């Protein structure tokens, strides 16, 4: 955890929260983030480090730093996607998957770093798609952790708040920090990716979860004002 300050260029004096003041310097520290997250993923395989991460509210700290990094990246006004940015997603996935000896900590890492779409909502379409594609792959290997993290409900809530093209007063404009119009085609494509995760989770679950999953899905369909998304969810509902 002592390596994490290397990913932050500066902090606010009043609350010590990370802040971005110098773009070139922030980009330099940002480039260190993926290797440091990978180093943490190796370090927590040791029981002592694992215990320390849990004791010091490590997942919350990691989520704060990750949110700062993603927000900083969006604030740099970089008009092109860099392949290297996907390394951060891969490093976060590696960190969550590396946890083998403490299931409760693994679930917490999934909740704070991977399933919370809020911190990822300012990223480019490509990075958000990379995240959702990674979650699809993990359904086959991390179904238990995702189920215990209440992934279906969390993702449905995230879809409602961040991927509705018809915005409500509490919806958040994704892909932009300056209020620009969202690209509807990209939002719908992300919804399709998210639906694949939900369908895979429902398919991998035991029959005892079926009723609760269907109730959650039905609740989302009833409240959604977006016909295109309702149609997509009805297909899953029918298949179940």
What do you see in this structure?
It is a single chain. This protein has 240 residues and is mainly alpha-helical. It folds into two domains: 1-114, no CATH class; 151-240, no CATH class. Helices cover 65% and strands 2% of the residues. The protein contains 13 helices and two strands; from the N terminus they run E-E-H-H-H-H-H-H-H-H-H-H-H-H-H. The protein has helices at 23-30, 33-43, 47-55, 58-75, 86-98, 103-114, 117-120, 125-138, 143-148, 151-162, 184-204, 210-223, 227-239; strands spanning 10-11, 18-19.
Unreliable runs, pLDDT <50, ≥5 residues? none
Main structural class: mainly alpha
Number of strands: 2
Largest sheet: 2 strands, antiparallel
Strand order of the largest sheet: 1-2
Overall mean pLDDT score?
79
Note the quaternary state here. single chain
SSE string: EEHHHHHHHHHHHHH
Approximate strand percentage = under 5%
Global shape: globular
What is the total domain count? Answer: 2
Q: How helical, in percent, are the residues? A: 55-70%
Radius of gyration over alpha carbons? 18 Å
Q: Report the total helices.
A: 13
How far from one another are the termini? 43 Å
């Amino acid at each position: 955890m002592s390596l994490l300050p290397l990913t932050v260029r500066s902090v606010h004096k009043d609350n010590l929260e990370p802040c971005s003041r110098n773009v070139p310097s922030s980009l330099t520290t940002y480039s260190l983030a993926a290797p440091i997250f990978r180093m943490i993923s190796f370090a927590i395989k040791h029981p002592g480090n694992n215990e320390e991460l849990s004791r010091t509210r490590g997942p919350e700290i990691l989520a704060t730093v990750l949110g700062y990094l993603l927000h900083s990246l969006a604030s740099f006004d970089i008009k092109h996607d860099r392949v290297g940015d996907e390394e951060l997603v891969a490093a976060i996935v590696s960190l969550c998957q590396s946890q083998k000896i403490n299931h409760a900590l693994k679930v917490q890492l999934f909740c704070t770093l991977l399933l919370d779409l809020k911190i990822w909502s300012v990223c480019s379409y490509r990075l958000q798609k990379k995240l959702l594609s990674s979650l699809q792959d993990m359904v086959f290997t991390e179904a238990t952790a995702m189920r215990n993290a209440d992934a279906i409900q969390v993702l449905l809530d995230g879809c409602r708040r961040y991927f509705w093209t018809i915005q409500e007063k509490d919806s958040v404009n994704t892909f932009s920090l300056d209020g620009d119009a969202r690209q509807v085609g990209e939002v719908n494509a992300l919804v399709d990716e998210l639906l694949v995760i939900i369908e895979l989770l429902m398919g991998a679950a035991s029959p005892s979860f079926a009723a609760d999953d269907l109730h959650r899905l039905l609740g989302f369909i009833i409240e959604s004002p977006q016909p295109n998304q309702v149609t997509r969810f009805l297909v899953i509902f029918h298949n179940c």
